[in-house]
Amino acid sequence: MKIQTVNVLVNALDTVMQKHYNNPIPRDHYISIVHTIARKLTVPNSNGVEINNNKERLKWGRVKHNGKLIWKLDIVLKNLIEEGVLSRTGYLNMPFAGKCRTYTLSEGFLNALDFKDAHIAIEYINDKLPFIVKEYNERISYHQQYSLLMSDRFSIDETKVFKWLEEATNSYGEVILDEDESILLVESLDGISKENALRYSFNTIDLLNKNVFVSMAGNGRVYTTFNTLKRELRKCCTIDNEELLSIDLKCSQPYILASYLHRKYKNETTKEFYDLVTNNDIYLWAVEHTSLDCRDNAKLDVCKWIMSRDARTTSLTANYLKKHWKKLYDLVLDEKSILIEQGSNMANFLQHIEASIFMSVAEQLNVLSVHDSLYFPKKDKGKVEKAIKEKLKSEGFKRFRLSIE
Predict the structure, then answer these.
(1) Structural domain for 325, as ranges
(2) Is residue 33 located within the same domain as residue 63?
(3) Highest-scoring range by mean pLDDT, 65-69, 99-103, 329-333
(4) End of a domain among 94, 124, 154?
């Protein structure tokens, strides 16, 4: 059976496992398990691959080695763990789990991956092996975006993807020294981990092979193989052979919250908050008023305040508001309590509003969504911008700001 994997993964495996091949287990058995576990990285919220030794070893069978019949699976897993390729949990504490553990690629093995000259590789696996080899398409639900991603209109440039992954993994965790040769920065914000690079590699393979998923969350958001890519890699994609542009609502969560509160209460506190969000960059405001050091970190912190279920949060923005803008702080807490009583929470509430706007336009114009943004061919810029503005206005939103890039 022919499979598509990443040469980076196979090269690293061969480096440490060469001495075990055909002694007595063939190379493809090792590739089968490691490839399967790596593929699981693309499954949302995956924690690895569960393997029940008692059941699975029967499927693999036994081999005679040093005069003894030994379970093949036991040998493969033992060698992969001893060589530091895999990590595993203890036996799972669940009914009927038996000898079931969760296996993942080890941190050391992932860190050893070298994405220089990374590309898609073809490997041949015995089609009688029980692992893999099924592509992970069970998550597909038929949807407008599924049809678009499956069509010939959509494409991704694998050469650009792997070039970017090489550069990004090289800059991840690099140490930058200041004038006194002291460490100034330990991790580059532009880089990505080897684990994420592997994940995006398999996302790319899936998009090329039209093995895509589209799933709908309860809050109305849509998750796809495309929108799980990092922003920079979405720029490696095209529709109708045209580069993609994106449009998004600036500071969308704070803006939707401020708009909702002001329409509901129309008091001095909500007006002041609404003015702050619509006239300024609230993330830069948070940098100015807290110890947050940059806009990216402030964005995460402001969202942490907004999305937290109650007062128990480590958000620096929340702490500042509690001391210096308590009316707003208390008002937001009251709204969170109301939503919880209704069986919801602030995150779902705001994301549902956001999704009702962007998903309706995505379906209307047959473009791709990424939560609070849309991706579309450059030629459609005018009509997408017009449709978003009309939708926002029809929902009663004013003084919104859109960003197109």
Answers:
(1) 244-405
(2) yes
(3) 329-333
(4) 124
Whether the predicted pLDDT of 215 surpasses 90 = no
pLDDT digits (tens, 9 = 90+) for 124-161: 988 888 764 444 444 556 689 999 999 999 999 999 99
Residue 129 lies in a domain: no
Q: Assess whether 252 and 327 both reside in one domain.
A: yes
Whether the CB-CB separation of 125 and 31 falls below 8 Å is answered with: yes
Partners of 68 in the β-ladder: 65
Q: Is the backbone peptide bond immediately before 377 cis, with ω within 30 degrees of 0?
A: no
Dihedral of CA 195/244/369/188: which sign?
positive
Residue length of the chain: 405
Domain stops at, among 74, 92, 124: 124
Does any domain span residue 294? yes
Which of 112, 207, 212 lies closest to 161, judged by CA? 207
Does 385 share its domain with 296?
yes
Q: Are residues 230 and 148 in the same domain?
A: yes
- Predicted pLDDT of residue 40: 86
* Residues 112, 155 share a domain: no
- Specify whether 147 is located in the same domain as 256: no
Average pLDDT over residues 77-83: 96
pTM for this model (two decimals) = 0.87
Judged on CB neighbours under 10 Å (0-12, 13-18, 19+), 81 is middle
Residue 68 lies in a domain: yes
Q: Do residues 302 and 234 share a domain?
A: no
How confident is the prediction for the chain on average, in pLDDT? 89
